[in-house]
Every structure is written in structure tokens, then in C-alpha cells.
Amino acid sequence: MNHSFGFFVSFSFFLLGGVLILQKRNTIEYEWPDRRLCYYGVVETTPEVKGKTLCSEVKVEFCIPSDSDSIGIYSVNRNILLYFIPDSMSYIPRCGDNIVFHSSITRPISDKEFMGFDYAGYLFNKGVSGTALAFAGNWRGIEVDKPNSIKHIALRCRDVVVKEFRSWEMEDDELAVVSALTIGDKSELTPELKAVYSGAGTSHVLALSGLHVGILSGILYFLLCPLRKLRGGKTVQSFAVAVTLWIFAFISGLSPSVVRAVTMCTLYLLASVMVENGFCGFFSLSLTAFIMLLYNPMYLFDISFQLSFVAVLSIILFYPVISGWIKSANRVVRYIWSAMSVSLAAQLGTLPLILYYFGTFPTYFLMANLVVGILATFILSLAMASLVCSFIPVVGDGFVWLLEVVTRILNTSMQMVHGLQGSQITSIYFNGLQVICGFALLCLLYFFFKSKSPAKLVGILLVLCMIVATEFYKIRKEDTPSLFLVRSDLYIRNNRETEILTSENGLHEIGGIRVGVMKTSHWKDVRLTGKTKLTTLDYVYICKGFSGDITRLSRLFDIKTVIIDETISERYREFMKDECERLNIKCIEKTAQASFRILL
């Protein structure tokens, strides 16, 4: 009876989750008109510099059709990524401001075949259903003094703190790490700095998560320790820590990673006051996941959500086992091994997902995380002290100087670890079956450590054999070499190795396939002296920068297929499509996909 009831409850929750996901998908999916229209929306995130444009997530509330349309203003209520080009006279909107823009909104294009990353799926899971580009003069920001959304107010508070950080005039890399580590602003991080921390296995320190909340709660408990001497001091201390953590979450912009960490920590604090034995770690983890998925079921497909909860679960299960391997009376040894045990447990649990999503493994993560744990504590403490004492000239400047020095030590340490030979193992990608086997292996390892049963050891060996067999199968069934027409260039890809192909005139012949990449005016004035055409082109790739027409090219080459890049203007594209139809040449528009693949 109990098993039946448990199965019924579990099935009901799975069914509820499926219904919520379908409802959420319906609120994201949208058929955008295939023409330029005027839209009115709200800026959801602080604009970030992306090349020559600014990028922000915008909630499009209304569409304002032109006078020639019979339909009037209608509601949209969908989120998009808006890239807009500012000019010297433009007011740069803040988070919570309104914006009016004239542009064409399109669905995000996925390039999973070429890049191995489903960009469209990533944005969809983030609640983004389209992208748009608004040129200078085609958009206008409308300032709003008091935003209605708590999220907008929180992000504006974060912008104020970021502005204060910038006023301290620290070096660029130190400012970027301080902003990312303390309030989650990663706009200043350079690709090189991200690569350093990723190679050292410490990129999680640049994204606010449970590590930062744990460090901050430890600092607060230490500072508020005198309260425990008062009557009811333990309750006051826990309440003060919980309130401060939520203030920290608010100032950092209420990002999902911080909210879930603070929620979990708050449950622990409530348990320490209200329940004699406290909450079970697994129970609080499950309750936090349930609350967040009830709020937004699409979090389930978010990589950071998956890694965060798997890491915490792995720490709950494996930390007591690993920490018991070495026992010492020395406090320093105990601290070092405890810190290494937490890092090892988290890395062990997330390894299948890391190999599935990223295909890399940092070899010196234990050493790097030991340094990061200590220095991150100092950076958080010094950042708090610098903000509190900023109005005191000498004291505030002293804390800022110390903060910059410690952050520079952290950056230098990570650069040293990243620079070590063999610091990162790359190109080890798990498929779905290997991920399942990996988690099955972890479960068997846990039960083996608990019971030391020979049967569990046999199961471990069998799962390892299955993972290895799957890898051998993947190696034997290597991907067929392919050509990719993407980004106005021609690439050849063999497995995961990609190489760009270049030539002076844009003509290529690979594996018997002839391709012409047309992105200049090279062939515009070329004339044949005889009647025989130059060659046969299996594919002609028309890119931005090409000047001419298909008719003139067909006099030079025997053309079988024309591929029109998405960067070609709509008017020019229609003109070339009509030419291809008249010349009886197959024409393919590369507008619904980022790349075009040709198997060799």
C-alpha cells in the first residue's frame, strides 16, 4: 500500500511538471511577423556592450503596425534579445525603462551542427523567443524613475554597486573579478580571463552560487557570534543572517543561482531554530528544487541549475565518505583535507554533466579550489568593508587597496595553474548513454563505500566496461568529414576539428566537390574569351560583399546550386531567387539555419 501511494504521488508530480512545462513553452513560443514593425517593450536586463552594439533582454509588450495595416495595436508579451546601435544623442535605457524600436524580430538560429551548441534552445530555455537588431535612429529609450518590478529594482541596485566599484579605479582584470565574485556582474570579464579560470577548474567562482552564499553566511555568523551570549541570541543570529543573505541576493540582481542558494540556506537556518534536529540536507535540497521548478519549470533545462543541484547532492552524499579517508589531530591538516573533500565531492558528482556539455576536465582543480576558497573569503570580506567604509577617506582607500592586491593574487594564481603543463584534458565528450552510465557508476560507488559489498564492485566494473565500450563505438563510428558554409566562409570539419579554407578567388575543390564563395566583386568584370565556361560549381555561396548577379555568374560557371547567406538584404535575396528560377538553378536560402552542411 505504501509503495503504491508513493508511486502515485511521484507520478502525479511528474505529470504536474509536464503540464507546467507545456504551459511555459506556450508563453515563450511566438510566430513573429516577417517584416519590420514598430514594437513597444520594457528593458529587462542592463544593456551590455556586444561589439558595436548594446544588447539587452526586452519584454515586448505591444506591436504597433503601420497605418496601412488593418489590424491595430495588439499585445505580444514575449521576451527577446534586442541588439541596438546607439548614437551620441541616444539615451541609453536602464533596466526597467521602456523602449520603442522599429525592427524585424526573428526566431533565434541554432548552429548545433557546426558549433556543437544549440543556441536557439539555450535562449528558449531562458524564456527568449526572438532576436532583433535596431539601428541608430530606429529606437528610443523612455526613462522610468520607479520601475514596477522587484527584479528591475534589484538590477538597478546592482548597477549602483557596479558604479561604486568602478569609481575605485582598480585594474580592469581585478575590477572584473571583484564585480563577478561579489555581485554577479560578468560584463567586464574578458574571454581570456574566463579561459584562465575555466582551465584552472574554478570558473564557478565567477558565477554567484552556493559557494559565495556559504562564505558570506560563514562571515556573518562569525561577526554576529556575540549575539549567542544573549537570551534567544541564536534565533536573532539566524534571523539576521537570513535577512542579510536575502539583501545580498537582492543587491546581486536576484539571479536564479543566488536565489536557490539563499533559499536552501534559509531552510537550514529556519530548521536550526524551529526543528530540534534540523532539516535533512536532501530534504532541503529537494524542497528548494521543487519551489524553483514550480516558479519556472524551464529551470530544469538550465545547465547552471543542473550543475548546482547535482554538486550539492554529491557533496551531501560523498563528503562524509571522502573526509573520513584522512583523520588528523592537526587543525590545519583537517581544514585542508576538508576543503579538498568538498571540492572532490562536487567535481565527482558533476563530472558526467561537465563531459557532456563541455568535454573538458581540469586536472589541478583540487589545488586551484583550495586557493580560491581562501582568497574568495578575503575578497568578499574586503569588498563588504570597502563599501561600508567608502565614506571614510583613508580607511576606505586602504580596504580598496587590499581588495585589489588580494584579487591580483587570485588572478595570478589562476594564471599559474592554467599555465601548468596538462592543466586541462579536452575533447572528451560524453553522449547521453555515457551520462546515464556515469551517474549509475556514482550511485554504485556510494553504496560500495557504505556497504563494501562485492556485488557493488562487480556492478562498478560492468558500468565502467559499458562506458569504455560506448567510447570505442563512438571512435569507430566517426563523423563523416563535412564542408560548412557559414559566416561568409567555407570550413572543413573532421570529427571536432574545424579548419577554415581560403583562396584568392573564392573557388575551392574538396573531395570532388567544387564550391565558389562569392563575397567580393572579384568576378564582376571577368569576361570569357571563348565559349567554354571556366568550370562547374556544385555550390555557389552568395555572401555579404558580393556585387553582381547570378546571370553574370552563370555565363562564367556551370552552376548547380546557389546558397544565399542570411546577411543578404531581403530585396537583393528576392532578386537573386527570381534569377535562379528563370535560369532553372536550384536556390537555397540560409535564413532558417546558421550553417549549410555538405557531406564529403
Query: What do the pLDDT scores average to?
Result: 85
Q: Rg, please?
A: 28 Å
Domains counted in the coordinates: how many?
Answer: 4
Share in β-strands: 15-25%
**Helix share, percent:** 40-55%
Distance between the termini: 60 Å
Gross morphology: globular
Fold and architecture overview:
The chain is of the alpha+beta class and 600 residues long. It has four domains: 31-148, OB fold (Dihydrolipoamide Acetyltransferase, E2P) (Beta Barrel); 153-425, no CATH class; 432-476, no CATH class; 482-599, no CATH class. It is built from 18 helices and 18 strands. The strands form four sheets. Strands 1, 2, 3, 4, 5, 6 and 7 form a seven-stranded mixed sheet that branches. It starts with a helix and ends with a strand. The mean pLDDT is 85.
SSE layout and pairings?
Layout lengths: L1 H27 L8 E7 L4 E3 L2 E12 L9 E11 L13 E6 L8 H4 L3 H7 L2 E7 L4 E4 L7 H18 L4 H12 L7 H10 L9 H14 L9 H19 L4 H19 L6 H15 L7 H21 L7 H27 L3 E2 L2 H24 L4 H27 L4 E2 L6 H20 L2 H23 L5 E5 L2 E6 L2 E5 L5 E4 L2 E6 L16 E8 L7 H7 E9 L4 H14 L2 E5 L5 E4 L1
Parallel strand pairs: 4-6, 14-15, 15-16, 16-17
Antiparallel strand pairs: 1-3, 1-5, 2-3, 3-4, 5-7, 8-9, 10-11, 10-18, 11-12, 13-14
Helix pairs in contact: 4-5, 5-14, 6-14, 7-8, 7-9, 7-13, 8-9, 9-10, 10-11, 11-12, 12-13, 12-15, 13-14, 15-16
